[in-house]
Structure formats: C-alpha cells, structure tokens
C-alpha cells in the first residue's frame, strides 16, 4: 500500500440521533407533534474520550485525530472543563441533536473554535441574526430529488412548506428553485435521525435532512435554516424550563445571539420531555407551558422573530454572491520526493466548490492535496488525490478559510501543470 506522505486531518462529527414520538392532542383539539430530541449522549459510555486540558488540540496524535472521525460516540473535554459529546455519522458536525455547525472535514476547526470560546456556540426568540440582518433574501430557494422520497413523504414536505408560506410567506417564503447558487436541498435521512439543518445560509447548496416525516419536524428544521436557534437555549430559559443533561455545550444557554420577545412555550423550536420540562414561569412569557415541545406550526413568537430578522417583505431579493469562476494555472518542476505549494501564502475562500487538475510527467507518480490553514498556524489536508499516476483531480466543497494546493512527487521527476478553479 502506498504510504501516506501528507497528514490527513479530517474529523467527522455528526448527527445525534432522535426518536419520533406519537402525536398528542392539545385541549383545543389541535394536533401537536413532539419535536425530535437529541440522543442523551452524555449518559452513554463514549467510544473515545479526549481531554484538551491535558493535551491541546494541536498536539493530538495522528491516531487520535483519525479516531475522532471514526468512533461512534466521542466526548471532548474543553480546556475550561466543559464537555462536548457528539456522534459520528453522515459527514456533518451537529450539536444539540439537529443543528449542523459545519462540514465534518472542518471539525478540527470547529472544536478549536469551541475551545477558544469556552464552549459558547454562536447562538425566537433566539436567532443567529440581529434585527433586519438575516442572510437569506425574501425567499429561501429549495429543492429535492424526487427519487429519494416516497410520495407520502413528499406530501408531508409540501404540506409543511405550504403551512410555513401561509403563516409567514410575506416575510420569508420558501420557493422551489434549483437555479440560485445559495439554496437548501431536502435530504432523506432514513430512520437514523429525525432531522438536521445548518442555522441560516452558509453559501452554496446546504442540506436539510428529514428522517421523521411529520409537519412539526419539517418546520422545526426549516426554522433552523431560516436562522432560528432552539427556544429552550435562550439565555433566560432557566426561569421557564428545566433542561436535563450535564453536557453544557449540547444543552446550555446561548447568550451570544439575538433574543426576541418573551419566552415562548408554544415555539416550534422547543424540545420537550425528557430533555426539557416546563416549570412555573418566573418572568413574563407567552404560550401555554403545557405545549412545550409539542408544536406543529410556527407560533406567534416564532413569526415575530422571523419578521424581526426578515423585515423587507415586498422588496426584491439581494443578488446571490458570485460563485467561483475562472481558473488559475501554476507550473513547476519537482525532483523525486520533492513538493511544492501554490500559492505559497494561500488564498482566501468564502465557501463552495474548489476544483483542480494536476498533469505531471509521463511515468512519474505525482499527488495533489488541498490544504487549509487553521488558527494554530498549521496547514492540514482537507482533500487529496493520490493515485499511482502523474495525473490527479480534486473536486471538493469547502467552507470559508485560507487554502492552498500542494503537489508532491511520490516517485519520478519532471515538470507539472496545475489548473485550479477558485
């Protein structure tokens, strides 16, 4: 087997599973479907535990870095003693059951950010955005592949989207459109988890995964995509609910983002029992405490928060950021075992697909790597193509950051050409 010549550091953190619960009926006769809740991972024995108080992230061995991406349940103790527990699946970093923090191949960067922030997650009332600053326009473009959903599942998706648009479509409307560069793709999550989504727009095509097909679950994930965090993680939540679990990063309060209105027990963004329990309110609130985690549509509070961050109803959408176009060509000559990087200082990337084609000398074995510079000052491999030939190709989706291409001669020498799209 060809030995690896550059270290690959790709940590896959992902989806904490959830369970679908039966429908419940409120006194009014309305159907409230309990929103899925995160697996109580902190109560399970982890397959791997890493204590960053003893060994800093930058000093972890290659073996530990690799195991962080493969073990099913991983627990990381941050330098300040807070614990982060995650499950590995599906190639995304997901905390609190369904909020995607980034691609799995940027997990080291995400953990580094959590370590530096002391476990604070950038976190309707509770929103990612200040008033008027949501990063979608008037519409959120979406699509899905019909072959991946049954007709009954499509019916649930359409019903949820229709209900959203009836309730709040004048402020932010979901619209089927495969053309824009920035859009949401609904993905069938199977039976492994109820759902997951990024919070707000991240750039490019972003997944919104559904595994539990009921209207409440779909609208909950749509709320995340539109920019809403969990209601039960408001900074003032301790006056209204009791949240179980000792994992303060997964279940803790988010006091660094924007809070709108009073605590809303009716919010679609709440979890319910056994992860959050209503208690006698110790401050102003709205909704019915009995409805905690049982919503099937946007509440009045949810809609007020969305109107606050999407105030420009009736205006045109802002222009999508321009996707990467054009190409740059690099050339060079390597001796056997030599390497080169292009450009030497790296290039800034705002997120999206990067492509590169390497053509080396006949009979040689040249390899191609995409590397990213992290906050520790080191460069880590995010993608590679290392076939036993002189020609290599990489096409990969990456988040914003500083990147560069690396060319390595495993054997043979001569001139090469690297064509990169950025």
Automatic annotation (TrEMBL):
Zn(2+) binds at residues 220, 224, 230. PROSITE patterns: ASTACIN (PS51864), PROKAR_LIPOPROTEIN (PS51257). InterPro entries: MetalloPept_cat_dom_sf (IPR024079), Peptidase_M12A (IPR001506), Peptidase_Metallo (IPR006026). Its cofactor is Zn(2+). Binds 1 zinc ion per subunit. Keywords: Hydrolase, Metal-binding, Metalloprotease, Protease, Zinc. Residues 124-313 form the Peptidase M12A domain. The keyword Transcription does not apply. One of its GO terms (molecular function) is metalloendopeptidase activity. Pfam families: Astacin (PF01400). The active site is at residue 221. One of its GO terms (biological process) is proteolysis. This is Peptidase M12A domain-containing protein. The lineage of its organism: Bacteria, Thermotogati, Deinococcota, Deinococci, Deinococcales.
